[in-house]
Write a structure and sequence with these properties.
Mean pLDDT of chain B: 87
Largest sheet of chain B: none
CATH topology of the largest domain in chain B: MetI-like fold
Number of helices of chain B: 13
Shape of chain B: flat
Number of strands of chain B: 0
Helix content of chain A: 10-25%
CATH architecture of the largest domain in chain A: 3-Layer(aba) Sandwich
Low-confidence stretches of chain B: 297-301
Radius of gyration of chain B: 27 Å
Largest interface: A-B, 24 and 16 residues
CATH superfamily of the largest domain in chain B: MetI-like
CATH class of the largest domain in chain A: Alpha Beta
Largest sheet of chain A: 6 strands, mixed
CATH topology of the largest domain in chain A: Rossmann fold
Oligomer: heterodimer
Order of helices and strands of chain A: EEEHEEEHHHEHEHEEHHEEEEEEEEEEE
Structural class of chain B: mainly alpha
Mean pLDDT of chain A: 90
Distance between the termini of chain A: 34 Å
Helix content of chain B: over 70%
Strand order of the largest sheet of chain A: 6-7-8-3-9-10
CATH superfamily of the largest domain in chain A: P-loop containing nucleotide triphosphate hydrolases
Number of domains of chain B: 2
CATH architecture of the largest domain in chain B: Orthogonal Bundle
CATH class of the largest domain in chain B: Mainly Alpha
Shape of chain A: elongated
Chain lengths: 361, 301
């Protein structure tokens, strides 16, 4: 049975369509990440699932129950917000127990659950403090605790780590993953950070303009992006796109500038036609240079234009047939601006998109 | 790179010295002092006059301090000054004003804060229209509504009675107070409200347990505005009550403007100061909160 099911959901703000005929099925215990740039409707979708926004059309099921018209508290969800949203005048204990008191639970049960949650999140020493006396990481932990203490099936996270500094973000990210492995609850997590998405998700839903572009495992999304938007969005630094045409002589080839690349090992999803215009997408980390390039099907000579050392690896900017082209090399090799080097890659690992529809070929 | 041994180390170091008696400071403080004196002179005259006896006042030196300090005028103003046939001083008006101000302030703030909260957080259908109408009310001159309200109070059987005046003050406080509270509540992060909803708190639960404890500064502002406004009100007091129920301000007017007998300037000054004491005290007590609340709620929209 699906834990959360969104059926044909529409949401309009006045005449603006924010979500369009959206469908999403989340399995029990699954960790789903909604990923997209700001304004793509990912937080709106989460608010709809939580019941904080009235939807225009469609249905929402949680644990097989139609909750479309239910109040947030009756949906069996817990939610964590970006700004923590802790009640400032209550102690940590008060924050954790607020929902339980509202639900009218007996005092003993409340105490038990608060103690248990505090133990799981290691916030026991903080219970008597007010939120103002906590650091950012501690506050977010309390906010997670507030969702946890409700003992619900589904957790909703609305960019929970975006207000934290980089180091804390990494720490809490692992902690959330650990929590998920321990509790095995369904989690829906909204973020614009692709690292968070890749590391946490069982499946990633990449959204654009209120439509889910692709809903697949991180591996599939990274290696087989379904369209050019997804390909460009996932991966940092971004994928290179080379414009060209498909040529079908003895084998299928990709022509750009004066170069002809052999695509016979590439798994096409549909049919292609002679002279079809297309983008060839190659990830910077799929390009190698020097001796490593010797055995690869495609080898090209390029000029090094700009070098960006990043420690573990170095990003090199160059030009291929007039197009900007960047790739990653390991940080230990020394390159000079103006140097001519041989680079190589395997077109079978690349992605080809139709020029007009921008869909994967 | 110049070698540090070549640098002149005797030059300026540490904080830049500032002259206390610079031209800028003299102009700044000079202006402030002159303006302050200008505003304080009337108050000074009132205080010294209220402490003089009538013979001393007749000498005409209004700026000179009292030769013989007497508190007689204060006692007279409070307990013996006559308005018409009543000669029990301002004390009756004082207690009337207390009976008017406390319920008016309490009721108007209670209703307006709930209005503001509903408008800011619960965006019900027609909320914007409702808000526009309410704010429109703030721009209509009072005078237009005086006569219709007389009729309304008469039909309700409240005309000339204290509850009637309390109702009037509550109504007229509504637009500005609602605006004040709405603006304050919109500055409270929406996520807090959402979190409370997920936690199962309802309309009243969120208001009393989340919003109210966070809004003390704006309540202080509202209390200051309402206490001073209602206490200082003259127009509604004189129109909607009868002599037995006159608030302090109306009684003060009747004492000061009485045309019979000798003008007792010392008693008049004392009576005026007595009437002004309550709003003054409120300002001094809540000054800090007031400024903080104004900055947080009223300015940001």
């Amino acid at each position: 049975m699906d834990s959360v099911s969104v059926k044909n959901l529409d949401l309009n703000f006045g005449s603006v369509e924010v979500l369009k005929n959206l469908n999403l099925d989340v399995k029990k215990g699954e960790f789903i990440v909604l990923l997209g740039s700001s304004g793509c409707g990912k937080s709106t979708l989460l608010n709809c699932i939580a019941g904080l926004l009235d939807i225009t059309e469609g249905q929402i099921f949680i644990n097989g129950k139609n909750v479309t018209w239910d109040e947030p508290k009756d949906r069996g969800i817990g939610m964590v917000f970006q700004s923590y949203a802790l009640y400032p005048q209550m102690s940590v204990e008060g924050n954790l127990s607020f929902g339980l008191k509202n639900a009218g639970l007996p005092k003993k049960e409340i105490e038990k659950r608060v103690a248990q949650t505090a133990k799981v999140l290691q916030i026991e020493p903080l219970l008597k403090r007010k939120p103002a006396a906590l650091s950012g990481g501690q506050r977010q932990r309390v906010a997670i605790g507030r969702a946890l203490v409700r003992d619900v099936e589904v957790f909703l996270f609305d960019e929970p780590l975006s207000n934290l500094d980089a180091q804390l973000r990494t720490e809490l990210r692992v902690e959330i993953k650990r929590l998920h492995q321990k509790l095995n609850n369904t989690m829906i997590y909204v973020t614009h950070d692709q690292i968070e998405a890749m590391t946490l998700a069982d499946r990633i839903a990449i959204m654009k303009e209120g439509v889910i572009q692709q809903l697949e495992s991180p591996h599939t999304v990274y290696n087989y992006p379904t369209n050019k938007y997804v390909a460009g969005f996932i991966g940092s630094p971004a994928m290179n796109f080379l414009p060209g045409t498909i040529a079908q002589q003895q084998k299928t080839c990709f022509k750009f500038g004066d170069e002809v690349l052999d695509l016979s090992h590439y798994e096409f999803q549909g049919t292609t036609s002679e002279g079809q215009t297309a983008w060839l997408g190659i990830r910077p980390e799929q390009v190698v240079f020097g001796d490593d390039a010797k055995n690869l099907p495609v080898r090209l000579e390029v000029d090094v234009e700009v070098i960006e050392p990043m420690g573990a690896d170095t990003l090199v900017w160059s030009r291929l047939a007039g197009q900007e082209f960047h790739f990653k090399v390991i940080g230990s090799c020394t390159l000079y601006v103006g140097e001519k080097i041989i680079i190589g890659f395997d077109p079978a690992c690349a992605s080809v998109f139709d020029m007009n529809t921008e869909q994967r070929l | 790179m110049p070698n540090s041994s070549l640098l002149n180390l005797d030059g300026p170091r540490g904080p830049k010295p500032r002259k206390t008696l610079s031209r800028k400071n003299i102009i700044l403080y000079g202006t402030l002092i002159v303006v302050a004196i200008y505003y304080l002179i009337p108050l000074y005259v009132m205080i010294v006059t209220s402490l003089k006896g009538m013979p001393e006042i007749r000498l005409g030196h209004i700026f000179s301090p009292p030769i013989e300090v007497t508190f007689e005028p204060w006692v007279k103003a409070w307990a013996q000054a006559c308005t018409g046939l009543n000669c029990d001083g301002l004390s009756r008006g004082f207690w009337n004003s207390v009976k008017i101000t406390i319920p008016s302030v309490f009721i108007s703030i209670a209703i307006a804060s709930i209005n503001g909260y509903a408008l800011a957080n619960w965006r019900f259908k027609g909320a914007n229209l409702f808000f526009t109408i309410l704010i429109f009310g703030a721009f209509i001159p009072y005078q237009i509504m005086i006569y219709p309200l007389v009729i309304l109070l008469r039909d309700l059987g409240l005309y000339t009675k204290l509850p009637g005046l309390i109702l009037i003050h509550t109504i007229f406080g509504m637009p500005i107070l609602t605006l004040l509270f709405r603006n304050y509540f919109t500055t409270i992060p929406e996520e807090l409200f959402k979190a409370a909803r997920v936690d199962g708190a309802g309309f009243w639960g969120i208001y009393f347990r989340v919003m109210l404890p966070m809004s003390l500064p704006i309540f202080a502002v509202a209390i200051v505005l309402q206490v001073t406004g209602i206490w200082n009100d003259f127009l509604f007091g004189v129109i909607y009550t009868k002599p037995a129920n006159y608030p302090m301000t109306v009684q003060l007017n009747n004492i000061v403007n009485s045309v019979q007998g000798v003008k007792e300037y010392n008693v008049n000054m004392a009576a005026t100061l007595l009437t002004g004491l309550v709003p003054l005290a409120i300002y001094f007590i809540s000054g800090k909160l007031f400024v903080r609340g104004i900055a947080a709620g009223a300015v940001k929209g």
